[in-house]
Structure formats: C-alpha cells, structure tokens
C-alpha cells in the first residue's frame, strides 16, 4: 500500500514543480494575448517582438557580460578555496570555510540590501560592475562545492610523483592537477554562469539604471500585452538553462570518472 502512495506523491510533486515550466512554450506559441485555455492558434509573433526589442537586447547584453564575468571570477576564487580546503591544514580552517560558504544560506534580499548600503557608503555608483560583485559573492560557494569534489577525488600520489621527478608546485599544478580537474572547472563555470543569468534580487538592488534580463522581465509583468513576449523569452531561458546544466553535469561526471572518484550526487 505504501509504494503506490509514494509513487502518486512523487508524480504529484513533479507535476506541481514542472507544470508551470511546461506551460511556457505552450503559451509562447499561442496566437493570443490572454494566457488562458483554449488556445487560439500557432504563431511566432512573440518571438519576433522579442528579437526586435532594443531594451531587451540591452538587458541581454548586460546579463551576458555579468554572467560571463561572474563565471570566471567565481571559478578562480573557487579554485583557490577548494584547493586550500582539500589539500592543506591551517588554523581556523573550519570557520573560514564555513564563512566562505555562508552566502548559500543567507537570504539574498539581506545580501543585496547590505551590499547596496556598503557600496553607496563608499561612493561606488551602481552599475554592471556592482552586480558582478554581488553575483560573484553568491556564486563562489557553488563553485567551491563543485571544485572541492574534484580536488578531493584527485589521487595525491600523482602530485607526489611529479614532485619526485623534479617538478615544482606551480608546474605540477599546471601540468598534472589542472588537466585532471578541468572538467570540474568547466562545470563550475557553467553553474556560476547559469546562477548569475537567472538571478534577480541582487541585480534588482545593485543594477542602478542598467537593466538585466531578470529585472527587465519583472518590469514588463505589469503590462498584460507584454506577457506573451515574456513567455517566449522564458521559453528561451529555460532551454538555455537546461542545456547549460546538462553540459555542467556531463563535465562533472567526466571529471569524477577521470580522477577515479565516487559519484555522490549531481545536478541531474
């Protein structure tokens, strides 16, 4: 009796979770401005409006710059932190790593408000750069979590063998360690890119007059005639997020298999 009930619960949960996402493409191709059934017909008009919108193109450009920069900076910081956390012992290691991972559990509205007060108090104008700072802060813990698995799965004897053959620490990291953890690095960059691209609260606080994709979408929800175009845009974003997460999971599993580690779970 318990097994059928559990299956029903699991199906109901998945339906509740993914039904809104499945409805996005349905209404994105619907020839009607009212988001309701029955559908009126098939159209590509909303996608045409989306590509012809200058403000949207500016918001997309800003979001891509922010997401790309966040992916690079957060991954670089994640490499340093994961390397130190998995290979070295130092005083206060536990509290320091816990402090670095703290943004994972802090409400983003508190982080965004605090960053806004700090940046304004030191005279920094709100711009794309300030959004990058905020996104690096919240994306770095995710990159550390991924890279920590990659570094922990790496066989220490490989590095020791390189040292015995006369290689220095930097050359060993460049020639041995880096190629082995490269799939994890790519995975962490893709995850950081996706997190930054979809993030709204930090961007809402720190973007100033520069629109980002999430803030633009939020501003257009007040206008009913813009809803079908937002549905089309949402369809594109969902497809892009799925592709990026799939690629990230592929490289994560490839990295674990390459280093001979054990897969303890992933994104998909």
TrEMBL record:
GO biological process, one term: transmembrane transport
GO cellular component terms, A-Z: plasma membrane
Residue ranges occupied by any ABC transmembrane type-1 domain in the UniProt entry: 60-248
Residue spans crossing the bilayer: 12-39, 59-84, 96-120, 126-147, 180-207, 227-248
Location(s) in or outside the cell: Cell membrane
Keywords linked to the UniProt accession: Cell membrane, Membrane, Transmembrane, Transmembrane helix, Transport
Membrane topology: Multi-pass membrane protein
Record's signal peptide: none
Family annotation (SUPFAM superfamilies): MetI-like
Pfam families xref list: BPD_transp_1
Stored PANTHER family: PUTRESCINE TRANSPORT SYSTEM PERMEASE PROTEIN POTI
Family to which this protein belongs: Belongs to the binding-protein-dependent transport system permease family. CysTW subfamily.
UniProt name for this protein: Spermidine/putrescine ABC transporter
Source organism of this protein record: Pseudothioclava arenosa
């Amino acid at each position: 009796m318990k097994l059928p009930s559990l299956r029903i619960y699991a199906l109901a949960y998945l339906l509740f979770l993914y039904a809104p996402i499945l409805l996005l493409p349905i209404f994105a191709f619907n020839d009607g401005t009212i988001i309701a059934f029955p559908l009126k017909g098939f159209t590509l008009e909303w996608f045409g409006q989306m590509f012809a919108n200058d403000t949207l193109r500016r918001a997309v450009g800003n979001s891509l710059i922010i997401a790309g920069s966040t992916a690079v900076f957060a991954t670089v910081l994640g490499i340093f932190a994961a390397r130190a956390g998995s290979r070295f012992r130092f005083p206060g290691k536990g509290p320091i790593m816990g402090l670095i991972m703290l943004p994972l559990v802090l409400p983003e509205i508190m982080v965004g408000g605090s960053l806004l007060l700090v940046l304004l108090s030191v005279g920094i104008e709100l711009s794309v750069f300030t959004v990058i700072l905020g996104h690096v802060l919240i994306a770095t813990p995710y990159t550390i979590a991924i890279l920590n698995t990659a570094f922990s799965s790496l066989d220490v004897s490989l590095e020791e063998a390189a040292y015995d053959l006369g290689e220095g620490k930097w050359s060993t990291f460049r020639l041995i360690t880096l190629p082995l953890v490269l799939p994890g690095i790519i995975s962490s960059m893709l995850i950081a890119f996706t997190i930054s691209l979809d993030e709204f609260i930090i961007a809402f606080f720190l973007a100033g007059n520069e629109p980002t994709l999430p803030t633009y979408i939020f501003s257009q929800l007040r206008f009913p005639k813009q809803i079908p175009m937002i549905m089309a845009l949402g369809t594109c974003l969902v497809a892009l997020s799925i592709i990026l997460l799939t690629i990230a999971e592929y490289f994560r599993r490839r990295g674990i298999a390459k280093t001979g580690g054990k897969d303890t779970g992933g994104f998909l």
